[in-house]
Amino acid sequence: MKYSMNLLLWGNQIDESLFPTLELIKEIGFDGVEVPIFNTNPEHWFKFRQKLDSLGLACESDTICGPSEHLISPDPAMRRHTIDHLKSALDCSLVLGASRLMGPYHSALGVFTGKPATEEEWQWGIEGIREVADYAESLDITLGLEYLNRFELYLTSCGDEIIRFVDEVNHPNVKIMFDTFHANIEEKNIGDTMRKAGDRISFIQLSENDRSTPGKGNVDWEGVFQSIRDIKYDGWISIEAFSPKLPVANIWRKMFDSEEQLMRDGLAFIKSNLG
Asked: Which keywords annotate this record (predicted)?
């Protein structure tokens, strides 16, 4: 098992100002970091890659699509723009040395029609991700698609939907990234959902129900850890936690003592259950 820390805990400004944070992440005992890609200029990431390499930290990457990048838009120009945007994020992932680009980018975050996804929207998503996956394959990068809860996304908002979506894309470079925060909202049983997804899962984010320290809330951690063992998962386990430093998360109250405390306690909790 390899352990990672998602840098969104420190907000969406991912640059050289985080170098001391990377040093602390390494000192605490993490094997790598999840790097959110908001800046899709590959040149932005060269110094960041150098710092990661100097510390011996591995890296996987994440990205999202907002209202201006919507892969299931009825506007063909918007869909083409989104595909190009995701290819640029893949170029940045290549610079960072990431083998995965993960996130809910099969559709736009926070964009709703007031209705369930149509068959046409579903197919636009399938077609777009297939093209992005072909490009990812040429870079030896795997896509890790994520479902979000119903308040943030409507194309896929539960395990069954993301499993169906990935199966219909039917591409060797398309897998699932599983996040316990959204599963805790949407699933009857998180462990059963993880077992159903099985080897489609290529990355796991462990996130508490309130996005604070894993193990301090009400997620069914016993069920989560058992399912990880049941599917014989032995890849990346990452902590994803948020704070007021990420305004889009709408967290305005203090939920942990410090980022360092959250990392130390969270990693110790996970290792005590997974070894």
From this structure: Isomerase
The domain 2-274 having CATH identifier 3.90.249.10: the answer here is no
Count of beta carbons in the 10 Å neighbourhood of residue 92: 24
Single-letter amino acid, residue 204: I
Contact present, 33 and 5 (Cβ < 8 Å):
yes
Of the candidates 69, 47, 58, 62, the residue with the CA atom closest to the CA atom of residue 25: 58
Angstrom CA distances, 184 to 68, 122, 218, 231, stand at: 29, 24, 9, 19
* DSSP letter, residue 244: T
Residue 28 near residue 51 (C-beta atoms within 8 A): no
- Convert the pLDDT of each residue in 42-94 to its tens digit: 999 999 999 999 999 999 999 999 999 999 999 999 999 999 999 999 999 99
3-state secondary structure string across 132-184:
HHHHHHHCCCEEEECCCCCCCCCCCCCHHHHHHHHHHHCCCCEEEEEEHHHHH
Give the separation between CA 135 and CA 23, rounded to whole angstroms. 33
pLDDT digits (tens, 9 = 90+) for 144-155: 999 999 999 999
Quote the radius of gyration of the chain (alpha carbons, Å). Answer: 18
| The pTM of the whole model exceeds 0.85 | yes
Which tokens in the block code for residue 50? 């150098």
CA distance 109 to 235: 27
In 3D, which of 116, 37, 106 has the Cα closest to residue 73? 106
Under DSSP, is residue 117 helix (H, G, I), strand (E, B) or coil? coil
Tell the burial category of 228 from Cβ atoms under 10 Å away from its Cβ (0-12, 13-18, 19+).
buried
Tell me which amino acid residue 219 is. V
Span 88-135, pLDDT tens digits: 999 999 999 999 999 999 999 999 999 999 999 999 999 999 999 999
